[in-house]
Structures are given as structure tokens and as C-alpha cells.
């Protein structure tokens, strides 16, 4: 567990933040100014079920409150995949099979005796970015997270956009290339199947002569060192990321797209070609008016966003102060 030194540790209005991803869960405490006071994480053991995950979250969070001396006022949760933000239940999350119907809001509220609120993790990241990050002061923002999958949170007129039945739009599953590779959602050629981290790694493995598996981070390092196969893989990744973002810009024309996630840690290789592709493909909208930038919240985006979920949904006085 990492504790961030801060004089505001004893802030009684701090929020517990839970960021449930495809492979791990981050747990932390965020103060009322959007500062992460403490953070930790645990790997998800899917086969042991959601109750095992709940137990680990509770253990970590109790240890954090004891070590920091912080009394939490509420709990904010961001979770991958389809979720119901009103009931607090998970839908059919493809990376968490058989977890459908689990309600972390109910479980954590009961464990700590405070209110809790849940959003899709991409919506949570968008809320955090719009309140505390590079999107502060913008009326329209799309936060795109590129990691194990591709998720996007859409902020229009300062509020999270929800579809029918409170559904979260799955932009990562818009079809970019119908003849492309199969996707975990059952379709083929989805943006995620072409430009997420696993797709990047898989394509490199198939095209290179390397005998051992390379992570996305390693492939990007090789590209910086001038390895041809790695360079081609990065070029392809940037192309498909840019193509998907061009579609997003054409459809929504937001003031800003904020990028985060493990893949965007190599933004120095990807950002310029992405911007160029968007400008070249978006001919009927003023694409140059949409700023495309890396999230200013960095690795803390998930935790800060989760805290902002609680503030947005349950802290009226906080909202009135904006």
C-alpha cells in the first residue's frame, strides 16, 4: 500500500474510491480537493467470485483508514463493463464472467455504514477529468481509456450522458473494420479488438519473429530503439486509435478528448499520429477545435474519478459549490 504524505489526511470529508478493472481492483482515499491520500490494489481472482473481491476491498480500505486516520464520508465506485448506476448492480461484464447481479454498492455501504455510488469506470474517469483534470471548465468532454479494453465516458453540458434505461454507450465496440478480428463481445472488427492493449500485443506476436511474448510496454520500448516489427506494430496501433477517435469526433464534436489507460503511457509514440489521422478523416466538422490530450490525472484517474462519482450523485453541497 502506498501512502501519499499530506496534511489533509485527517480530512473527514474524504471519499473512499474503488476502481474495478478487468484484472485488478484499485482502492484508495481521495480528499475533497481531488488529492489521492493513499492507494493500494489487489488482483482479481475471477473464479473465486465477487464476494472474495469484496472481502479484499474491505480489508484494504479498513487498513487505509486506520493508517491514515481518515474518517470516510462515502464510497465512490467505478467498474468496468455494463453496470446499472441506479441499482448498483453489475451487468454481463465479459471480463468478469458469472459476476452479473453483484452489487458492490450494497456490500460496501453495509461494511462501512456510509452511502456509496457506482458508475461505469469510463464515466467515472470522465467525471474526474471534467472536475479536477484537463477538462476542467469544459462543457463537453469525452474521456477515452485504452488498456485491456477501450472505454469512453461522455460528458455533455457538464453531465454524464446516459442512454435508454441508464445504459452506458460502449464506444469501444463500434465496428471499425467488419472483416477484422473477433471481439470478446461477439462481433468482429470492433475498435477494441483492433486497438486495445491485448490486440496490440497479439498482432506483434503474430507478425514478429520473437519467440517470447512481449508486453505492450516492451513493444513500445523496442519501437523507440528502432526495431522494425515493433515500429510497424506501433504505427498500426496509432492508425486504429486515430480512426476510432475520428469517428468519435465526427459524431460528437466534443471540446476535448482526454486519453488515459496503460496503452497511453506510450503517448509520446501515439499522440501526434492520432491527431493527424483525426484531422485528415474529419472533413465535415471543425476537428481542430477538439483538443486531444493525455489525461492530466495520470495513474490516479480511476481513483479520483470514483470519488467524483460519489460527489456528483450524493453530495449536494459539493455540487452547489461548483
Structure characteristics:
alpha/beta; Nucleotidyltransferase, domain 5; single chain; 2 domains; six-stranded mixed β-sheet; 322 residues; globular; five-stranded mixed β-sheet
Write structural notes for this entry:
With 322 residues, this protein is α/β, with parallel strands linked by helices. The chain has two domains: 2-120 and 301-320, Nucleotidyltransferase, domain 5 (2-Layer Sandwich); 134-296, Nucleotidyltransferase, domain 5 (2-Layer Sandwich). It contains ten helices and eleven strands. It has a six-stranded mixed β-sheet with strand order 1-4-3-2-5-6. Helix 3 crosses helix 9 (301-314) and helix 6 packs across helix 7 (228-252). The longest helix is centred in the last third of the chain and has 25 residues, at 228-252. The two termini are 32 Å apart.
